[in-house]
Amino acid sequence: MMGQYDPLLVMLSLMVAVTASWSALDLSQRIHSTDPRAARIWLFSGALVLGTGIWSMHFVGMLAYALPMQTGFDLLITVQSWGVSVLVSVLSLICARRMRRSLALLAAGALAVGGGIVVIFHLALSAMRIEPGVVYDEHRLFIALLVAAAVAGATSAALRRMRALEGRTLFLVKAVTSVVVGVGLCAVHYLCMSATVFAPEAASLARHDIDPTWLGLTIAVGAIGFTWIGSVAALFDARMEHRTRQLAMRLKAANSELMHAALHDPLTGLPNRVNFDAALSEAAARVRAQGGRLAVLFVDLDGFKPVNDVLGHHVGDEVLKCVARRLRAGLRDGDAVARIGGDEFVMMSEGAIDQEGAGRLAQRLVDAASQPMQIGTHEIQVSASVGVALFPDDGDENRVLVCADTAMYAAKHAGRNTWRVYAAEMDGGGPDILGMQRAIRRALDNDEFVLHYQPKVAALDGALRGVEALIRWQDPERGVVSPGEFIPVAERFGLINAIGFWTLREACGQIRSWQHAGWRIPVAVNLSPQQFRQPDLVERVRACIDEFDIDPGLLALEITESVVMESSSSVRRVLEELKAMGVTLSIDDFGTGYSCLAYLCRLPARQLKIDRTFVIDMDHVAEARHVVEAVIRLAHSLRMEVVAEGVERPEQVLTLRSLGCDLIQGYYFSRPVPAAGIEALMQGDQLTEQSARVHALAERLRADSGYGCPPALELVAG
Ligand SMILES: Nc1nc2c(ncn2[C@@H]2O[C@@H]3COP(=O)(O)O[C@H]4[C@@H](O)[C@H](n5cnc6c(=O)[nH]c(N)nc65)O[C@@H]4COP(=O)(O)O[C@H]3[C@H]2O)c(=O)[nH]1
């Protein structure tokens, strides 16, 4: 028995095959997803779409062949054939995923899939339940099997190639592959059909089951719809994955930027202290394991401060960048350089280095630093003092840097612009910095710090107007250690923040207890430059004020001139935020740095403290007196209050008073005293005595017709 092909249905079967191939390729691309669960889901969805496509292509193809008998389809066998089709597709996609691992596996898989496609054809045909049964031309069937295997193999290979493509090329390759695969699948079907021989008296026993026309149309439309849904899902997922990948890349880039910022000095781009310490520990571990030596060099610039002060921070910054470039240019394999402070750099050199080699390296650094540099219109020349220490000869990785630092000081004492190698005798004269660093940590844990308070009094009548909190350290071994000694060490070893915030809390606690006693005494706390640059400074100040429930107006923060004069927007913002909180801002050590008057006008500070050095010289050096006078005028024109520091003698009081200075602080009135001393002062005796001194001075001044304080004036004893 022979049938006839309906060209429309043949086209429809081709359409189904091409559409299913396209969609299956779409979905199958996703089976390489990095998430194994998602990859499994995509594999089964792809198999479902491909299986349904192959299966429906067979059915539509069979319907396209109109036999001269009434036909129908058995529901159970129809469903079974669909199940087998999906299973075969699962197998084909698994082969596609694993083909990288072996070509033999690819060939075996392709044959199995090819065989599966032929079996699906057979099952689909069986659903018609033809009696007597059909027979197959084995040769043609074998050719169909080979074509099916080739289609399966080509699909796997195309899938592999497509992984490396994107955009338009991917679209084109996918379109061509879908057409080739679709045509191939149809070819398999029609080859199978041509291999099928129907007996002349053949009849379909399933002719009363499912109507073939409806079944065909439903399957074709359903399959095309189904495959398009799959494609849309795959497209959506691909977009999501692309976006997720982009986000992940951006996150990674942001992370590495953050990491870089945490480990590098923003000005020079060199590694910072934390980074250097880690590199030093690693290098020390290598030397311990493999032997050899490590040279550590401490580089401190000579003459940098005057450049900064006179020519401004921007020129100072350029000088530092230039020195950093020169140090970096001299690096060799196994060397590292870092900036660890304002004008301090450290370097380490790994390998079998000896004292002589380290000395040569130090000389190179000294030479590099002392070359003149052109910054804008200025030709600038600085020099460097370099200290050298060796690991493990001079100590472990914690100590070797301190030794290099000590040697650097020796180089400074030797006249600067030179280098020295560390020797144990160098420790003799100077403080044991490392020991002190450990002792400071212990002091913080053991509460060995106390605050003393030095009064600030009104120049006019000697009334107490506030106090400055000054830290004192009662070290069980060293006795009372001056802040001038331990604060620089704390700054160098990153302990100043802990000390600074301890002082802040302690001072706020004191304000509260005085507030409870009925005294509103403003307390000024020194903020170190490092503490000022802490990103959470404002929050910590606010937290202290809230914790002790104090009037923020009673807390003053003293910030050194050099810090507030950094005209960066972050400094301005912090100052504005502190002011907005109600805290008083005071510019400390005024006159010792480089001040930009235009910037000073815009500062939200309320108080300006004239540095002690001007007050000391005021009586006998005319220039110092002129500076004090000018600073007082300037501050008043900016509506700032002026405090003169370090007032020790009555002559100074009189001069300052005559110049209109508002507040006076110094040993003349009181040394820094424990809180109880301030309380005694508040309760009467000492204040009255000091006020009496000021009044007596004022009387003498009024009696004198001249300007200021006559040198011969006999004063009340100080
Ligand atoms: N010769 C002389 N000296 C006078 C006179 N009146 C006051 N002084 C001293 O001058 C220093 C004033 O503090 P400073 O300039 O802020 O200088 C302070 C300040 O920069 C720092 N410091 C003290 N306490 C703290 C603190 O809690 N945190 C921070 N960051 N620094 C602190 O240590 C520096 C030294 O503090 P001290 O030794 O307490 O020294 C104090 C004080 O005792 C005087 O009439 N004559």
UniProtKB/TrEMBL annotation:
Transmembrane residues, as ranges?
A: 6-25, 41-67, 79-96, 103-128, 140-159, 171-191, 214-236
Which SMART domains does the UniProt entry name for this protein? EAL, GGDEF
Instruction: Give GO terms for biological process.
Output: cellular response to nitric oxide
**Which Pfam families is this protein grouped with?**
EAL, GGDEF, MHYT
Residue span, GGDEF domain: 292-424
Known Gene3D superfamilies for this protein? 3.30.70.270, EAL domain
- The residue ranges of the EAL domain are 433-686
Q: Name one GO molecular function term.
A: cyclic-guanylate-specific phosphodiesterase activity
- In the UniProt record, which is one GO cellular component term? membrane
Q: Does the keyword Lipid biosynthesis apply?
A: no
**Alphabetically ordered keywords of this record:** Membrane, Transmembrane, Transmembrane helix
Instruction: Output this protein's name.
Output: Diguanylate cyclase/phosphodiesterase
> Which stretches make up the MHYT domain?
5-199
Record field: catalytic activity: 3',3'-c-di-GMP + H2O = 5'-phosphoguanylyl(3'->5')guanosine + H(+)
